[in-house]
Amino acid sequence: MERLITKLTEKHVLFTASFVIRLALVAYGDYQDKTMVVKYTDIDYHVFTDAARFITEGQSPYNRSTYRYTPLLAWLLTPNIYLSMVFGKILFIVCDVLSGLLIYKILLLKGLGTEAALRVCSLWLLNPLPIGVSSRGNAESILAALVLGTLLCMEARHLMWGAILYALSVHMKIYPVTYALPIALSLRTTETRSEDKKGIKSLMRFIRSFLNRELFLFASVAAGVFCMLTALFYYMYGWEFLHETYLYHLTRRDIRHNFSPYFYMLYLTADSGWSQWLGLAAFLPQLILLLVASWAFHSDLSFCCFLHTAIFVSFNKVCTSQYFLWYLCLLPLVIPHLSLSLKQGVGLLILWFAGQGLWLGPAYFLEFEGYNTFLWIWLAGLLFLIINSFILMQIVSHYKPTQTPQRLKVE
Amino acid sequence: MYFVLVSVLACLASCHCFIERDEKNENHCGLLQHWIESSLVSMEIIKRGFHREVEITVELSPDVHSAVRVLLLHRWPRGVYVDPYQLASLSDLSDWKIILDSTIDLEGPAHKTTGFVTFVYPTPDGTTPTLLKVTIPIHGRYHEPSFVGETFTSVEIEPPELLLWTEKCVPLNNVEPHDVMEAPCTHHNSSSCQWVKQQHQQKEQGPVSVQFPVGDGSLCGPVCGGTLLVTMLCCVALSKHMWEHRII
């Protein structure tokens, strides 16, 4: 009984403390914004608030230049105008702590002990990166909560809720659409490999394995919710909604410097005839890796989604530091199964930060000092990709799923 | 007879009034001409990189009336832009107000955008000190890569044009050789006024050149080749590794 109480207290202490830390930073951020030249609040928060203001005036949120999100977000933030500017930040930090709770629940479902689960989810709850991001007013925590909610429902086999949350996450940001393949592969009917026939019969059997009640339920609910939301907002805001929320991100060719290894290539070829072909060539590695990852790891959905997101971000044509949170929120689900030693883990973390640092240096000199460091930024971007690939390979090598599926390792 | 006399006297009286008003008008317009001729505008661009600040100093004649309004008309080239949202948050802290003539594309490269015009009101509340300072934050756009080996591109920024207006010199006439220009009366942009523009020859300063780094177009081949090679190698290595460690 006492041990139970201790455990409960610990859990409550952890979650309360992480909420209080975030709340304190929101309060501090408000103070800094009012008194100092350098603002604490992220520019995105002002974009969301301006868009919400347009909604309260009966106009389209897309009247706000650079608002490239779902209208749902601006609607959610209308209390910023009616109640207080700080409402949005409170919502984001609540979603952030909720993400921690979802990580905890998923870990428990996967068979981890309470204490271990709490320790792992403290890696998210007490991590300065998500604390900083959500208290500065970025909406990434809403998406993290939606994706983790989807994974929790899939783990607990609540397929309808999983489908609804999945549709909401795809509606908010496009990248979760890549999870469709591993989800479909994990929901299909698995058969015993008694017959090892090749050819058309095996292909037919493979296709038929996708036709089952669970997959049909998930697909129809997810597609239904997504189409409903799309239709509703298209009716309200027209073509601009489709363009700013989806098409812009799909066709985005940001030639300004960012972490992507493709940045310099796209900048130099922006107006040339090769631009389209190069864009396609840049898409191929992403596609190949996502297909391989889906097939190789679909039986462990959390790990597969983590790999998907990390691959998507690292090989994307545009990559900013906000994108890192997309896979960092899934890392705590992977960590308990890693057989890396603490030294190895810290080593990989330092390597990851070093890769970013090597990029940030020349980028700072370009943007704020006016030196021509384009070549260095390009090389640093390539190095960062190599580092990310190496880290992912290390994670894959040292991942030990606790379930019965066997690991195949070719000696 | 008396009627004729009275009407002639009335006519003379009203003529005298008009002449007096005209004289007063001419006096004020003369003063305006004098003020605009004796005012100085200087511009300095500080900071480095893609985010700069344009410091404009206006020295007005010491005998300038408080009823005179000042307007700085700035024609910006397409190589730079101002962030209207940044300006909106700055206007709470500063005593000058600004309006733009068009919507600004915050993300487009220079060759796909156009220049724009800003109207800066250094003293929107009507008081006119003789020394005015305005600092406008500007941002450089990305430019087309250079295929001739140049590492920087120049953007020429002209100093602003000084315009003065006073309600006592309306309608504006006899302010030659200065031009008269129509522009918004205040930053509220609700009405138009006739402003006197300082002549070009009077400007102390020519355009200021600002340098921004540009990509090296001659490296296009090696950069494309190098990028595609590294990304494909990473793709192959990672795919192979994932396949070898796949979970059945």
From TrEMBL, chain A:
Compartments it resides in: Endoplasmic reticulum membrane
Keyword match NADP: no
Segments traversing the membrane: 12-29, 81-104, 215-237, 274-293, 300-318, 349-368, 374-399
One BP term from GO: GPI anchor biosynthetic process
Record organism: Notothenia coriiceps
UniProt EC number: 2.4.1.-
Stated family: Belongs to the PIGM family.
UniProt keyword annotation of Lipid metabolism present: no
Role: Catalytic subunit of the glycosylphosphatidylinositol-mannosyltransferase I complex which catalyzes the transfer of the first mannose, via an alpha-1,4 bond from a dolichol-phosphate-mannose (Dol-P-Man) to the glucosaminyl acyl phosphatidylinositol (GlcN-(acyl)PI) intermediate to generate alpha-D-Man-(1->4)-alpha-D-GlcN-(1->6)-(1-radyl,2-acyl-sn-glycero-3-phospho)-2-acyl-inositol and participates in the sixth step of the glycosylphosphatidylinositol-anchor biosynthesis.
Record's keyword terms, sorted: Endoplasmic reticulum, Glycosyltransferase, GPI-anchor biosynthesis, Membrane, Transferase, Transmembrane, Transmembrane helix
Root EC class: transferase
Lineage: Eukaryota, Metazoa, Chordata, Craniata, Vertebrata
Name of the featured protein: GPI alpha-1,4-mannosyltransferase I, catalytic subunit
Membrane topology according to the record: Multi-pass membrane protein
Automatic annotation (TrEMBL), chain B:
Pfam families per record: PIG-X (PF08320)
BP terms from Gene Ontology: GPI anchor biosynthetic process
Signal sequence residues: 1-17
Statement: the UniProt record of this protein carries the keyword Endoplasmic reticulum: yes
Entry keyword annotation includes Endoplasmic reticulum: yes
Membrane topology recorded in Swiss-Prot or TrEMBL: Single-pass membrane protein
Record keywords: Endoplasmic reticulum, Glycoprotein, GPI-anchor biosynthesis, Membrane, Signal, Transmembrane, Transmembrane helix
InterPro entries attached to this UniProt entry: PIG-X/PBN1 (IPR013233), PIGX (IPR040039)
Main location: endoplasmic reticulum
SMART domains reported for this sequence: PIG-X
Record's GO cellular component terms: endoplasmic reticulum membrane
Source domain of life: Eukaryota
Subcellular localization: Endoplasmic reticulum membrane
UniProt pathway annotation: Glycolipid biosynthesis; glycosylphosphatidylinositol-anchor biosynthesis
Function: Stabilizing subunit of the glycosylphosphatidylinositol-mannosyltransferase I complex which catalyzes the transfer of the first mannose, via an alpha-1,4 bond from a dolichol-phosphate-mannose (Dol-P-Man) to the glucosaminyl acyl phosphatidylinositol (GlcN-(acyl)PI) intermediate to generate alpha-D-Man-(1->4)-alpha-D-GlcN-(1->6)-(1-radyl,2-acyl-sn-glycero-3-phospho)-2-acyl-inositol and participates in the sixth step of the glycosylphosphatidylinositol-anchor biosynthesis. Probably acts by stabilizing the mannosyltransferase PIGM.
Family statement drawn from the similarity comment of this UniProt entry: Belongs to the PIGX family.
Cited PANTHER family: PHOSPHATIDYLINOSITOL-GLYCAN BIOSYNTHESIS CLASS X PROTEIN
Protein name (record): Phosphatidylinositol-glycan biosynthesis class X protein
Protein's organism: Notothenia coriiceps (black rockcod)
